Every structure is written in structure tokens, then in C-alpha cells.
Amino acid sequence: MFDVAFDYSATQDEVYRATTKGLIEGLISGYNATVFAYGPTGCGKTYTMLGTDREPGIYVRTLNDLFHAIEETSDDMQYSVSMSYLEIYNEMIRDLLNPSSGFLDLREDSKGEIQVAGITEVSTINAREIMELLVKGNKQRTQEPTAANQTSSRSHAVLQVAVRQQSRCRDVLQEVRFARLFMIDLAGSERASQTQNRGQRLKEGAHINRSLLALGNCINALSEKNGNKYVNYRDSKLTRLLKDSLGGNSRTVMIAHISPASSAFEESRNTLTYADRAKSIRTRCSALRSPLTPRLTPSAEVQAHSSLQGRAEMDQLREQLIDAFRQQMEVRRSLMELENSNMEIQIDTSKHLLTITDWEQERSRRARKWRAERRKESLSKEESEKDSDSPDSPPDIPESQEVAMARENLVALMAEQKKIRKQKVALERRFREQRERARRLEELLPRRVSSEEQREVLGLLCKVHELEIENAEMQSHALLKDNVIRHKNFVVQRFEQHRHLCDEIIQQQRQFINDHRLLVPPHLQELYDLYTRELDSGLGYDTPSAPSGGGAGREPLQDVDSDQESVRMLALDTGRGRAKARRHTLPPILPEPEGDSNRVFKSSSHTRQMKHSVVMTPPPIHINGPGHQELRPQPQESMLSYSHLSGSVSSQLDSSPESSENGADAPLSRRADPQRGEEHRSEGGPRPRPGHLDPCPCPRQPDPRNPKSREPLSEARPAEGGPGTSRHGAGGERASPELRHATSDDNLSSSTGDGPALRLSQSKAAAQRFRPLDSTSDPHLHINGQPPAPLLRPQPRGVPPLTKIRLPQHGHPTGPTAVTSDPSSPGLPLGGTHRRGPHLRPPQPLLYVTTSGTGAQRTRKH
Ligand SMILES: Nc1ncnc2c1ncn2[C@@H]1O[C@H](COP(=O)(O)OP(=O)(O)OP(=O)(O)O)[C@@H](O)[C@H]1O
After folding, report:
1. Which mutation among 6, 14, 47, 194 tests ligand 1's pocket best, with the greatest number of atoms within 8 A of CB?
2. Where is the composition biased (Polar residues) (predicted)?
3. Is the CB–ligand 1 distance for residue 50 below 6 Å?
4. Residue 432 above 70 pLDDT?
5. pLDDT tens per residue, range 496-517
């Protein structure tokens, strides 16, 4: 199928109108154009292109119409037209308007366009002058009579018309358009047998055939459907000159000439085959402008030429590129929104976890208070009455609606998070595919766009979109970082909660120790001393100015409250409201003023690790977990020979209480008087002997904000003259630091308690009465709360009731924390023997067994 076919009756005008006239409007709009005549020798190529004086061919008709079009628009536009006329003969270029200039070279300019160096360019818009020039030039063309054609053209003739156009409205649009029109009369393909050429003619024929063969090869390569085949334009000057016309930015018309004679069947068939292949070449055509303007295509002109295939292809390529970038942007935006949603969910999750944890701690606090009240009641009643009337466990506290909602929301949020993860994976895959598609399109540009300006424009287009995508990515990362910071605030709050829990455990354990007058091993005492010193001094372990060391070189954790503050809050936590106020106040991210040392402390290795970690899952709350390690002093500070301790304590454990009483060191046993606790609460009670635990169950919890509460007891006690003022550790190896304990919720909330403070003996003898137990040695002793097991036996008569410790049971993934001591549990037989584990476990130094009471009464302490 061809666009149009003419028989012998077709006139020059018909051929011109059907093939070339349509190019003129594009030409003055900046579109390149090419018309070439192809076919066997003697079939009318020159006649079609040049014609005769009476029947001018395409050259003249085209130029006439071009000049008319220029004239019509000359009010608005300013044109300059130049013309050159050359021939390629035996692979040499001759200037037909100035044959004396010799052979000319082809050169490629900086824009990649082929130029004939030194060619004569005639500037005229006079059609008559043009015709005269052409006739004159054609006479210079190499023509020789052959057997096939008396006036056979032995060369390829190329008429080049350059149109430069500029708007006269300079202030409105400084736009210059430049277009070239090639009109080419090819030498005829010929068969030597037919032309019967010899000598020079044969040589000419060989050159002609060679260049036409090169042209044919280019046509074949360009017509390949995948467009990836290499096009070798360099095989001949003809193909080099026609490079843009064939495969570049040009609208090209090929007029194939064939003979009606059956004897020329073979040539006709070959010609039509070539023409058919050339028909499938898709050139990419767009208006050429210099300098570049933002307006890529004049809309009116685009509409006028939208039917042209090259233009459509160009638009298609650009559209594909823009579409690929747009889709990338959309996916990137969706990903950003998804990330944001994900972070919002995580933050919401943290909020709900905080709510639940707060409630767990509140429940624990209430239970503790209940037990403290029970203990007071039990001391004032007869044992029999107590046993019969009082329940064993605190009343169940129903969850608030807020907590129930938090649990429900957590489930929903987890489902949502799962959904988002799936969507994210799908979007990321789509994004990768689209990026690959855009990359392939960009790679196509150099092959499909021959014009340097076009390549530049499309390259810039690509760059702009790539930058937009990069910008979107950066926005996404910035947003993500913001969210990470927000989320970290919640993580920090979780740590705070965890610290509160640890502090609470410490306080309760100290209370327990005090209530039951237990001795603690020296190393534990040291740890506790350090802990209280920190509270008293208002400095953290790791504060740079802290003399205790261990913090040198560490960086302050700037975005969390101090441990002291947490402990103070615990001590002063008289109501739920305050805790809530703290919970809903985000800790500061920026460092506190240096002068406020109470609010600055250095991070432990764990907190530093968490600080730099991107894992946003709050830490699980475990006893002996990382939270405890934070409060742990440096190993050298708590150095203790466990083997030494173990042996000593072992002997003590195996001996009866009586034997303990007789020991050389201070005895561990306390009096069997069931009213002992009451005695110690009364003024003027017996002073404990050195080496004994201060029996007073009501030590004061110092208020760090109240300097009076931190006055050395050694000075205060004599003035009080009350019991429990004995100076312990007479036989100790070092000075005993002050210890202050909260023994009840009331005391916790008060800094002015009347009860005497406790001092724990630091004597070696006391230390030797303790031995750390392997928590695995007794199935009922679990330090990590799994399974919850009783730690204490039911209290025998005459012994103050033991505190039932129930740490918060966390119902969320942060892990359960439970150390339960249930007197009613059957785990420990009354007066049961203590099992000694085969191994000592230094990491769990809080687990000890000691004896207390008289006779066979032994109490397991934790
Ligand atoms: N349509 C036509 N009407 C009248 N004469 C024609 C027509 N086509 C060709 N001729 C005449 O046929 C002869 C050969 O034509 P022409 O020289 O144009 O062929 P060509 O294809 O250019 O040959 P070559 O390749 O050898 O140069 C010329 O004398 C030309 O005037």
C-alpha cells in the first residue's frame, strides 16, 4: 500500500500537490522536510524534480509556494531563505552553483547536523531567480547519454533550502525557527547489462549502485520494527547527507519511479520493495527553535500537522515519558502517605500501651496499699480473727473504660498495620517497575531523537521529573524522621514507666526487708547505697560531675527525665492524677539547662543503644531486665565473692536459729515476740543490738526535695531518742551509708514520717548469713515471673505477715512481669527446707534465702 500512485497521465502539478505541497506549511513553522526521487534510470526522476520550463517540477513549484507562504505571513514574521545546490558524483560533492569550488566535504556541526563545508548559499525569495539558478546549476550536473537514457543523470542532485524565521514582535516572543528542505534527484539505479555501460560509465554506475545500496541498507535498518538495528549512514555521502531526512527530525516524501515496460519488471519490483520498506520508517519530527522556549509546540501548528506521523510519534514519546514520571510520583506520594499512616499507627499503639501500663501500675499500687492496710489491721487484731475475717487477695479492680478501649484499639491497630505492610510491598514493587519503564524510555531518546535541541528538551524534561521524584523522596524521609522522633518520645515514656516499675520494686523489696528485718548481703547493700546516694545527691550515676564515676565520657541522654525525678515521682505519687499528668507530658527532646542537674543524667549503655536504635518497639518490662541494669552500678562497685558468700550462708542456713543466735557474728534471728512490730513502733522500745536489722517497720522515705528529710540520721536520732537509732555495722568493714525506705504508701507520700529510719548492718557477719539462690533451684521461685509462684509461705503465728508482692501483669506484648508471693499457695510447705541451687547466679543477686524467727520458723525471702 502506498499513499498515492500516478500513471502516465498525471501532471506535474498533480504530483507536486499530492506529494510535496503539504510540507511547505510545516517548513515555515520550523519542520524539516525532504523529498527525494528514487528509481531506475530513465524513469522520470529528473523530470519530476526539475521538470521543464513549460512543466516545472517539484523544485520550482515548492519554492514558488514557499515564497507565497512567506509573503502571506511577512507582516508578522521575518524570513530569510537561502538555497544551495550540489551533486554527489562518484562519491564526491560538487557545488552546482559554483562548480569551480572543487569537491566539498561533509561535516557534522555541534548540533549533530550534517553540513557541506564551503557550499554556496544563495539568499533570494524571487522564484524567477531561483529557476534560473536551478537551470544553470543543472547544466553543471553530470549527465551522460546511456543506453537507457539519453540525458542520464550520473549523480545525485541535492537542492537544499534553508528557511529562517523570526517573529517581528520581538518584545513578545523572541523565537527563531529554522528548517531545511532537501529536494533530491537521485541517480538512477541501473543494471550494467541493461545500460551496457563500459569504462567511465560502468565506474559511475558502480558508485551509483553502491550509494543506492547504502541507501537501501539504511532504509532496511530504519524500517526494522524494533528500531534497534544499527543504521550505517557512513557508507556513502548520500546516506550521510540524508541522515536526518531518513532517520531523524524530518518529514520525508519518497517518490518512487518505475517504468511501465514489462522489460523493466525486475527493477520496478525492486524499486517498489524499497519504497515499501521506506514507508515503514518512522521519523521523529518536531519544530526546531533557537533559543529554546518553554513553549514546546505552537498549538495551532500542532493541530495543523497533527496528522503527520512523525509529530505524533514525538508527542507519543513525550507523553509516555511524562506519564511514567507522573505514575512514579503518584506511587511515591502513596508510599509517603502509607509511611505516615504506619507511623501514626505506631504512635497510637504506643499511646494505648502507655495507658494500659499506667493502669497496670495503678492496679499494683492499689493492691500494695490494700496489703499495707491489711498488715496494719492484722497487727492490731488477734491472729485468729485476722485469719478468719480477712481475704487473702485484694479486691479485683475493674478496668476502666479507657483501658478497655485501649486494648480494643490495640487489636485494631495491629490489623491495620498488617494491612499497611502488604500495601507497602505492593506499592514498592509498582514503583520499581515504573522506574524501570522510565529508564527504558530515557534510553530510547538518543536513538529516536536526532535533533540536539529535541534531545536537550526531553533530557531536561526527564531531569525535572527525576528531581521532583527525589524531592518527594526527601519529603518522605523528613516526614518519617519527624514521626520517628515523635515515636521515640513514647518509647522514652515507656522506659520511664519501666523505671517507675523498677523503683517501685526496689521500694517494696526494701520495705519487705525492713518489715521482716532481713539482712542483706553487702554487695546488695552497696547497690542500694549507691541508689540512695544518687537520690540524695540529686545526681545520676552517670552525671559527669558525679564522683562515683562510671559515667565519665558518656553522653547525657537528653530527651528523658532523670532517674531521680522518676523515683521522686514514685515516692511522691499520692494519686493517679499526678501520674497521669506526667504520662501526658512528653519528655523534652532538647537538653535541659545544665544547671538543673536533677533533670540530666547520662544514659546507660542500654538506653544509648535504644536511643540510636530504629527499632521502635518499647522494651518489655522484666524484672532483672535492662531496666534493672540501668540502675546497676559498675561491676567493680558491686564486686562480691559469691562463692564466699554462698559457703558462709550455707552454713548459716543449715544451722538452727538457735545456733545462729549463738554465732560469733551478729545473729540473724529476731525475737519471736509476735508483737515485736508493735514494740518497734512504740517509743522507748528496746534498741536492737549491733548487727541486727533495725526492726522498725516504719522507716521514712526521704523527700529529695526536702533537705531535712535527708539529714544524716546519725545526727537526728540522738535527738529523737527513740528506738531503732542504733548505729549498725559496728563490726562492719566500712561506713554504712544511710538507707531510707518507704514502708507504706503513706510513708511514700510523706517526707515527715515519724518513724525512725532504718540502718542496715554492713557487717561481714550479716553478709555471711545470706546466699543467693539459683532461681531455678526451686520451681516456686521465679524471678522473671513465669510461672507466677509463691515466694512466701503462710505466716505462722507470731510472725508479722509477709507482704504479698504482685507486680503488674502486663496484658500487652511488652511481656508479663510477675513475681507473686502468695501465702496461700501450696508451693512451699510450712517450715519447708530451703533448696540450694547448684549454681550461683550473679545476675540475680536479689534472690536470697535467710532464716528468721525462732525455732523451726524459717521464712523464705525474696
Ligand atoms: N511524465 C513524463 N512526461 C513526459 N516526459 C517524461 C516523463 N517522465 C520522463 N520523461 C522523459 O523521459 C526521459 C527520461 O527521463 P529522466 O531523465 O527524468 O529520467 P531519470 O529517471 O532522471 O533518468 P536518470 O536516472 O538516468 O537520470 C526524459 O527525456 C524525460 O523528459
Report:
1. 47
2. 849-862
3. no
4. yes
5. 888 888 888 888 888 889 888 8
- Rounded Cα distance between 34 and 52, Å, is 21
Residue 99, pLDDT > 50, answer yes
Task: Say if 120 falls within a structural domain.
Answer: yes
| CA–CA distance, 50 with 134 (Å, rounded to integer) | 8
Query: 577 or 186, which is more confident?
Result: 186
Give the residue-averaged pLDDT of 357-384: 80
Instruction: Verify whether ligand 1 is closer than 6 Å to residue 652 (CB atom).
Output: no
Of 521, 588, 367, whose CA–CA distance to 842 is shortest? Answer: 521
Residue 664 lies in a domain: no
Cα 760 to Cα 300: distance, rounded to the nearest angstrom: 99
Mean pLDDT of all residues in 33-55: 90
> Quick check: 183 and 35 in contact, CB under 8 A?
yes
* Digit-coded pLDDT (tens) for 597-638: 333 233 333 333 433 333 333 333 333 333 333 333 333 333
Q: Looking at the 3D structure of the chain, how many domains does it have? A: 1
In ligand 1, the atom with minimum distance to the C-alpha of 189 is: 25
* Contacts by 637-640, CB closer than 8 A, 24 or more apart: 637/526, 637/527, 637/530, 637/548, 637/550, 638/523, 638/526, 638/527, 638/845, 639/523, 640/521, 640/522, 640/523, 640/845
To the question of whether residue 804 is assigned a binding role by annotation, the answer is no
Question: Is residue 742 scored above 80 in pLDDT?
Answer: no
Q: Of 687, 703, 854, 676, which is closest to residue 759 (Cα–Cα)?
A: 687
Q: How many CA atoms lie within 13 A of 423 on its CB side?
A: 16
Domain residues for the domain of 115 are: 20-290
Residue-level pLDDT at 70: 85
Residue 466 lies in a domain: no
What is the distance, to the nearest Å, from the Cα of residue 550 to the centroid of all Cα atoms in its chain?
36
Q: Which atom in ligand 1 lies closest to the alpha carbon of residue 185?
A: 22
The answer, yes or no, to whether ipTM is higher than 0.90 is yes
Measuring from atom 12 of ligand 1, which residue has the nearest CA?
Answer: 44
Tell me the C-alpha distance between 842 and 584, whole Å.
38
Q: Are the C-beta atoms of 602 and 541 separated by less than 8 Å?
A: yes
CATH number reported for the structural domain that contains residue 79 in this entry: 3.40.850.10
pLDDT tens string 552-565: 333 333 333 333 34
45 pocket-lining for ligand 1 (C-beta < 6 Å): yes
Q: Identify the pLDDT of residue 176.
A: 74
Burial 1-15 (b: 16+ CB within 10 A, else e): eeeeeeeeeeebeeb
Residue (of 54, 63, 86, 207) closest to 158 by Cα position: 86
C-alpha distances out from residue 430 to 424, 470, 479, Å = 10, 17, 22
Evaluate: CB of 271 within 6 angstroms of ligand 1: no
Question: Is 553 among the domain residues?
Answer: no
